[in-house]
Amino acid sequence: MKVLQINTTYGNGGGSIGRIVHDLSETMKENNIEPTIAYGFEYKENYCAPNIYKIESIPYLKWSILKTRVFGRHGFYNKSVTKKLIKWIDSIKPDIIHLHNLHNHYLNVELLFNYIKENNIPVIWTLHDCWSFTGWCVHFDYVGCNKWKSGCHTCPSLKEYPYTWFFDRSEENYAAKKTVFNGVDNLMLVTPSQWLADLVKQSFLCGYPLKVINNGIDTTVFKPRKSNFKKVHDIEGKTMILAMAMHFRKLKGIEYLMQIPKLLKEDECLVLVGMDENEKNKLPKEKCIGICRTSDIIKLAEIYSAADMFVNPTLEDNFPTTNIESLACGTPVITFNTGGSPESVDSNTGIVVRKGDINGLLKAVRTIKIKGKNSYSEYCTKKANNLYEKHKQYQQYIELYNTVLKSNTSI
After folding, report:
1. Is 40 within 8 Å of 52 (Cβ atoms)?
2. Helix 374-387 to helix 321-328 angle, to the nearest 10 degrees?
3. Helices 15-30 and 321-328: angle between axes, nearest 10 degrees
4. 378, 374, 384: which is closest to 325 by C-alpha?
5. CA–CA separation, 284 vs 201, rounded Å?
6. What is the pLDDT of residues 353-399, one digit of tens each?
7. Cβ(351)–Cβ(330) under 8 Å?
């Protein structure tokens, strides 16, 4: 069996979904499945191998971004690189195409789906956000928009990713996606959270079969580790509150994270990971430490392990892997009740706080501080190993591939 995965990124340098694509490929090899990968463009890592195909160059990516900014037809450019991709797909002849993120300026979805329909190729499509069934945005929680249920128009999120400067093409995009993404004879949708699955059932994709498979992580990497992080940063004896800054993205709750240091006591410190040097300079000078983004996952696991708790005040999310990475390292999680973020957290592994409630967030910090990390750690690691270990999760995809091939016609 040969399975082709298509995603924006690939590997450890490509964020959580890039890691998922890589880890799933490794699981395929263990199950005598030949993995092939087509990815949009490189960040720091450029993968060159017969079974790995890079779709576009960075200059072409910038040109694609500019067209989205000006004309607002995101997902419907990139014709020449998509035609080349289709020729490559023809040459490798995959038995199944496994789609991940199709947005981010690297594909023409109409050309790709027309090719899939014409050749009747079985498809698994893992939805990591809501872009597939909206006219523009990847999430709509923050603005409270429900137009996607009946038809997008007058979009309130044009200045959010994928960003456009001039034209609202949400109505046109919505109609085009509805046509393009429907009509595939052999397509199975997968979502990493029940929250997203429930939304898909209300969308124009509701006619497809649907399965929930939570994201998986490498628990041989993300596990309780010895760490000198507190000593190196001179916060030994202090309560370390860890969070991901995500390049200061407001939809990941940066405004709440910036408030926390002002509310902390002298024996408490907020550590923010995932920024550049310029962003570090914007941080509060006291009770706050900034750490630049790292692709070294061992180092990241050591930081999780050093923390007394992980805070995720996300305002829009599907099923964040940061939560389960923290749990695997024995560190309890505090999160807003946003999207699928609370699905990995229970009373034994952390605290779920009402969205936007900074006082509730601080109260949760103090609750875990008083109870102590050790009262949560065993439950955290046990839950991560039982429910989110990558081999267990990705084995569900292997079973799905076998089911798809056996069905021959439709799932």
Report:
1. no
2. 120
3. 70
4. 384
5. 43
6. 999 999 999 999 999 999 999 999 999 999 999 999 999 999 999 99
7. no
User: What is the C-alpha separation between 109 and 25, in angstroms, rounded?
Assistant: 23
Closest CA to 192 of 397, 398, 401: 397
**Residue written as token pair 């024995």:** 330
Q: Which positions ≥6 away from 392 have C-beta within 8 Å?
A: 216
pLDDT at 324 over 50: yes
Q: What is the pLDDT of residue 411?
A: 44
For residue 282, what pLDDT is reported? Answer: 84
Using DSSP's 3-state secondary structure scheme, residue 292 falls into strand
Angle of CA points 142, 322, 265, to nearest 5°: 85
**What CA–CA distance (Å, rounded) separates 341 from 409?**
36
Q: What is the spatial distance between Cα 57 and Cα 61, in angstroms, rounded to a whole number?
A: 6
Q: Are 112 and 89 in contact (CB under 8 A)?
A: no
382 burial class (0-12, 13-18, 19+ CB within 10 angstroms)? middle
Nearest to 186 by CA among 102, 110, 95: 95
DSSP labels, 32-54: T-EEEEEES--SS----BTTEEE
